[in-house]
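Regression test attached.
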Amino acid sequence: MASERYQPLQGMSDLFAPEIHQWQTLEQTAREVLHRYQFTELRTPILEYEEVFLHSLGSTTDIVQKEMFAFEDRGGRRVALRPEGTAGVMRFLSSLGPDAQTARVFYMGPMFRSERPQAGRKRQFHQIGVESMGAPDPRLDAECILLQLDLLAAWGLDDAALQLNTRGSKARHAEIAGQYREALSERIDELCDDCKRRIHTNVLRVLDCKQSECRAIVESLPGVPDLVSTEDRAYFDAVCACLDRVSAKYTVQPRMVRGLDYYEHTVWEVTHPALGAQDALAGGGRYAVQMGGTGLSGVGFAAGMERTLMALEGRLSTSGPACDLWLVSLGEAALDFNFALCRELRVAGLHCGMSMVARSMKAQMRAANRVGARFALILGESELESGQGQLKNMEDGSQQDIPLEAAAQAVGRIVRA
Ligand code: HAM
C-alpha cells in the first residue's frame, strides 16, 4: 500500500471512472432542470474570508464552531474553506446592487466540513444548490420547493420525502427561543451534556439533537408553527396551499428547525430511506442575510451529491461516452497512417482512439473491447499496399473493406449510419 502521504486526506476522495460518469449525469440533468427554471450558474471561490461564514451562518452554529476548516493565510488573514454555498453567493450578490434582489443562481462544487467521517458524511463533499432572491413571498418559497422536487424526480428519486416546517419571521425568533428555553430548563437534568450547554448557547439546536433522551423531551414540546405569530402562520399556510394546488407531497415536521441561523419562515429537508443515520440528502429554506451594508432575502436549497448517489443505489449508468472507433495499427507505416486518420476523424466529431506505440493485434483488440468501441479499423502492411482497410463491426463481427484514399469519409458514413 502507498504511504499515507499519497492517499487523500481522511473523509476526502478522488472521483474517477466508473463512478465519475454517474456524477456527470447528475450534473448534466441538474443543469437542464435549473435552466428550465431560469437559474444561471455562479462559481464562487472555494476559499473566502472566514468572516463571510461567521456572519451569515451564525457564530454559534455547529458548522462554524466545530466544522470549519479555518486558518490564517500567509498574510495573517483569517480564511476558511467554504462549508456550504449560500454565504459565498450572498457575498457575491451584495456587490451587484439592485440586481441582487431578484437574482436566481445555482452552483455545484465541493464544500468542506471537518466532521467525523462515516457513511454519507465526508470532509470534502459536493453540493448542487440554488438561491432564488426576493422578499418573503409564499409563492417564491413554493416554487423553490417544487424545483427541489422536480430535480429529485429528474434524478430518478421519486421516493425521496419532503419534510417541511416554518421558523417564523426573524423578529420573533428570540421570543420563540425563550419559550423553548423555559420549557427545556424544567427538564435540563434529563438532557444530554451537549444540550445542557445548547439551552444557553443556541436552544433551537436541542430540537435537532439525535440522542434518544433528548428526542423524547423534544417530542413533548409545542411545534414551531404553534408558536409563530398569526401572520407568520398564514405565510406558512399559504406555502402549503401553493404546494397542495399542484398536488406536491410533503410532511409537516413541526419541530424541524435546521442547523443554520440565517433561516426564517419556510425550511425543509429531503430524506430518503436508503440513507440510514445521515438521512438528509438535501435541505433548504428561506433566509435573510446582512452582508456588508446590504440586506439580502432569498430562498434556496442544496442537495448533497454523495448522498444523492447513495440514495440512487447504482441506478445510474457507470458507462462513459461511447467510443465509435478504435484504430488498430500493425507496423510503423500503419501507425503513421492511423495517427493522421485518427486526428481527422476526431476533428470531424467522432469518438476514437488508438495505441500510439506498437502493440500486438491481440493487445489492440483488447483495448478496443475495454473502451467498448463499436468499430475497429484494422490496418497492416498488406492493407496499405492494397489501399483497402478492414472495418470490423465489434457488435456482430462482420467486416467490410474501406478505401484508404478517402478513409475518413467512408468510416464516418458507416459509423454515423
Ligand atoms: P445543509 O443541510 O447543511 O444545507 O447541507 C445540504 C446537504 O449537503 C445535506 O442535506 C447533505 O446532503 C449534504 N451534506 C452536508 N454535510 C455533508 C457531509 N459532511 N458529507 C456529505 N454530505 C453532506 C446547506 O448547506 C444550505 N447552504 C442549503 C441552503 C441553500 N439553504 C438555503 N440555500
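Expected vs. actual: identical. The longest strand covers residues 280-291.
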